[in-house]
Design goal:
Elements lengths: L21 E2 L12 E8 L14 E3 L2 E5 L5 E5 L5 E5 L12 E3 L2 E6 L3 E6 L5 E6 L12 E3 L2 E4 L8 E6 L5 E6 L29 E3 L4 E6 L23 E6 L5 E6 L15 E7 L2 E8 L7 E4 L9 E5 L11 E5 L30 E2 L11 E3 L13 E2 L5 E8 L2 E3 L16 E8 L4 E8 L9 E4 L3 E5 L4 E6 L5 E6 L9 E5 L2 E8 L15 E7 L22 E3 L6 E4 L3 E2 L4 E2 L10 E2 L2 E4 L3 E7 L7 E6 L5 E4 L4 E6 L3 E7 L2 E10 L1
Parallel strand pairs: 1-31, 24-25, 38-43, 39-44, 43-49
Antiparallel strand pairs: 2-37, 3-4, 4-5, 5-6, 7-8, 8-9, 9-10, 11-12, 12-13, 13-14, 15-16, 16-17, 17-18, 19-20, 20-21, 22-23, 25-28, 26-27, 27-29, 29-30, 31-32, 32-33, 33-34, 35-36, 36-37, 39-42, 40-41, 44-47, 45-46, 45-48, 48-49
Length: about 675
């Protein structure tokens, strides 16, 4: 039941209860995909071009259901694109990732921990319930099965996965990510640290009705200061960074697998788990596929939690101050992406290797501990597969994901989850992994990060569809990765394509709305729900300005003439007053100014402020134009002859980063 492919309907986010994002429809294939064209587009909010849209559409009985960035829910005729009804959100906007449809109702979220049931035919409110005390009910698609709703929670000190009665919203059970006193796993937390342990289930689960289990991925441990600080929460910290199998009817614990013990890197593998039936070593196995940010898949028996392909606990570097765990689990087949930054000398090809390290940082591999000095690692807490939707193809036997290279520098000097160094290229790729062997079949580098909602759809005809942050919807050959077709949708795509059928006609649909992760406000926004069919003739959208791929510096542009074409190293800058900071700084914005605009041919002076305590400097990357160290009061000049953008950081404190924009 859980693994029936999508067909006429695509009834839930993930396609089926196993989150396979796969369709059995075969009308669109390699022989005719070049004839695929848009048949309608609905600007559901009338032309909205702001906000964060991370919702994926579902299709039931020829109707698409989608949430906008404003939190409104739309029912759209799948054949004509006509809006049938709208539910207008009254409680304000919050991030949503998809509705559930079942028992004649559509289920959505409302700000303030509300779950809302709408009449499927009219959009009228059937019931509303506020569910307080278990975490923030947002950022998670709602899942329906057999009269139950499965609702995750996010961004709290402690949070739970919830099961609700779909008829009225009554709570059936809850399962805490950070177990309380007397609960399984509580003894893996030092003292009362579990009370602020985080471990939020911020992505939707998978469900196996035959085994009676729901599979939920729980997020990173947080703790006393941030997710990067493990100094006051000794232990493995269950169920952080864990996949937990939970009894679907009672909420009882059945088994768990923790992919990162005592995490201090915000590298939680919080992907929507994917269920599949495959043959491993000649034996049929019911598996669950788990793992995302770390760039590895953990393939587990979904009844017992054992690893049929082998997972080993490998010793990793330690720091007693962080109370690090001595080992971490690694699949024997290895990762599907780089797990250490690549050193490529400045002055060589630009941009170079996608996992290229920004210069001057101390570097580490996955699970290298940190303290007060930033340690650069990859794929980073915003990289790997993160929270996009994976796809399992019944035809090829592969699980597919888009991923990102978003290197991160962790230390206790960083706020929140860590620093994404300014000047790094944030790109990504697509990988196909054989689910029966956990070996890579193919891997393709792509120009954008595809780790944040850029869901995958595979088809019975061995096609693969994925949307990009530049607005392009792509079709690739699922067996080789070769591009077959593309279409400009007009806004960044942070959702999954789906397929459905109405009156014998097969359609592909995708919502292009856009989100800020990882490209900030440079990612184009919109409210465009598109449908495609063979022979469609609606023109593509105008190509929007592409997202800014390089991580920006902290601070707006300042004309060189306003500061005598001079950058002061180790000091902050206040553009409104033209004031240079009175004290030395090693902050990210400790270049005064961080973003200098000059015409080509300008000579720029870099000065280590005379009041600084020691040697500072500037290393230009990745072109390698200069790399100098300066004593307090010393200066260096460089003439910028060619148009372009030239990033540099301070070898004494690489967090401090600036950019010269030459026009």
């Amino acid at each position: 039941m859980a693994l029936i492919p999508g067909g006429r309907d695509f009834p839930k986010v993930g396609g089926n209860l196993g989150n396979q994002n796969y369709t059995a429809l075969d009308g669109i294939r390699r022989g005719n995909v070049r004839e695929l064209g848009a048949t309608w587009v609905n600007r559901i909010e009338g032309g909205l071009s702001s906000g964060n849209s991370q919702s994926t559409a579902v299709a039931v009985d020829g109707v698409l259901y989608i949430e906008s960035a404003l939190g409104n829910v739309f029912a759209v005729d799948g054949a004509t694109g006509t809006t049938k009804w709208v539910y207008r959100q009254t409680r304000g906007s919050l991030t949503r990732r998809g509705v559930a449809v079942g028992d004649g109702k559509v289920f959505t979220h409302g700000k303030g921990n509300w779950i809302i049931a709408l009449d499927r035919d009219t959009g009228a409110v059937v019931w509303e319930r506020q569910i307080d005390g278990y975490g923030n009910m947002e950022k998670v698609a709602v899942i329906f099965h057999d009269g139950q709703l499965f609702c995750g929670t996010a961004d709290g000190d402690r949070a739970a996965g919830l099961s609700l009665d779909a008829s009225n919203g009554d709570l059936i059970w809850h399962f805490w990510g950070a177990p309380g006193t007397g609960e399984i796993g509580n003894d893996t937390w030092e003292g009362d640290s579990w009370q602020t342990g985080g471990c939020t289930p911020w992505i939707h689960p998978a469900v196996d009705p035959d085994l009676g289990l729901v599979y939920w991925a729980f997020g990173n441990a947080r703790g006393n200061r941030s997710s990067q600080d493990g100094s006051e929460r000794a232990g493995q910290n269950l169920f952080s960074s864990s996949l937990v199998a939970i009894d679907m009817k009672t909420g009882a614990y059945r088994w768990h697998f923790q992919s990162i013990h005592h995490g201090i890197w915000d590298m939680d593998n919080t992907m929507a788990p994917v269920l599949a039936d495959v043959r491993i070593h000649g034996r049929p196995r019911k598996i669950v596929i788990y793992g995302s940010k770390c760039g590895m898949y953990y393939i587990l028996d979904r009844e017992t939690g054992e690893a049929p392909l082998g997972i080993d606990e490998i010793p990793v570097p330690q720091d007693p101050r962080q109370k690090t765990w001595p080992t971490q689990p690694f699949p024997r087949q290895g990762p599907w992406t780089e797990t250490r930054p690549v050193n490529q000398r400045n002055g060589t090809s630009v941009p170079g290797h996608p996992a290229r390290a920004v210069p001057n940082y101390r570097q580490g591999a996955l699970y290298t501990p940190h303290w007060d000095e930033p340690v650069l690692s990859i794929p980073g807490h915003g990289g790997g597969a993160d929270w996009n939707h994976q796809s399992f193809s019944h035809s090829t036997g592969c699980v597919y994901t888009g991923f990102g290279y978003v290197a991160a520098a962790h230390s206790l000097t960083e706020s929140s989850n860590g620093l994404r160094p300014p000047g790094e290229y944030q790109t990504g790729g697509i990988v196909a992994v054989d689910a029966s062997t956990n070996r890579v079949r193919w891997k393709k580098n792509m120009p954008h990060s595809l780790a944040h909602g850029n869901g995958m759809l595979t088809t019975a005809t061995d096609l693969l569809f994925i949307g990009q942050p530049d607005g392009n919807l792509l079709c690739l050959d699922a067996r080789t990765g070769r591009e077959q077709w593309r279409f400009q949708c007009g806004a960044a795509i942070s959702s999954s394509p789906i397929m459905y059928e109405v009156d014998g006609q097969q359609y592909l649909a995708v919502y292009a709305g856009g989100t800020s992760i990882p490209y900030g406000d440079s990612a184009p926004r919109g409210d465009l729900l598109w449908a495609f069919k063979i022979g469609g003739h609606v023109a593509p959208a105008p190509t929007p300005a592409p997202p800014v791929i390089r991580r920006p510096v902290q601070g707006g542009p300042v004309q060189g003439s306003a500061v005598a074409n001079t950058v002061v190293i180790g000091r902050t800058y206040t553009p409104a007053t033209g004031t240079i900071g009175a004290t030395e700084s090693t902050a990210v914005n400790a270049m005064a100014p961080t973003h200098l605009r000059v015409p080509a041919g300008t000579t720029v002076t870099f000065t280590n402020h005379a009041g600084n305590a020691g040697v500072r400097g500037v290393t230009q990357f990745f072109e390698g134009l200069f790399d100098v160290r300066l004593a307090p009061g010393e200066s260096y000049t460089h003439r910028f002859r060619k148009k372009g953008e030239y990033f540099y950081n301070d070898p004494a404190s690489p967090r401090s980063t600036g950019k010269i924009e030459v026009y």
